[in-house]
Amino acid sequence: SYYHKMQAQKPDLYVAYNPGTSVCDLPRPHQPQVYLTRGLDLKKCLNTSSKTVVYIWGPKCKSKICIPLELLQQKCRAQNIDLYVVAEYYDNEQMDYNYPLTHPILGIDTEYYQSDRTAKYLSAFVYDLTGAPPTENKYLYFENGQFKGSYGFIDDIDALRP
Where are the beta strands (DSSP E) in 7-87? Predict the structure, then answer.
């Protein structure tokens, strides 16, 4: 995950998990910040929106399934869909940027999941969030807090088709 290495290089970029703060109420920071969270805590927020996409973001992903965060936010906003971006792993170069997102970027609390191995903590996080076994798909879709499915491409979600 590179969390400890990245956090040591830029400690102000990462905001440690605070159980007294709801993920739903996190302010969009004026400077780049990544808030560490847990799947069950993010799940609580999903009830507040009729439609939500959780994007498992690979900061260095260059494949066709990965689209720029700005474009993804525009697509979701145009369809009245709430978007949460969760970093799959840590990369200071890509994360030290103030993306124009409605919600701050979230990172997975590796301490809580007791692993620095991406596959292990990501699987546990996705399971906590969805209640389903994780897949390779990066787009998780919810309606009224209920997990509806995971998708390989954003345009595969019916609610996001024009």
Answer: 14-15, 34-37, 51-57, 82-87
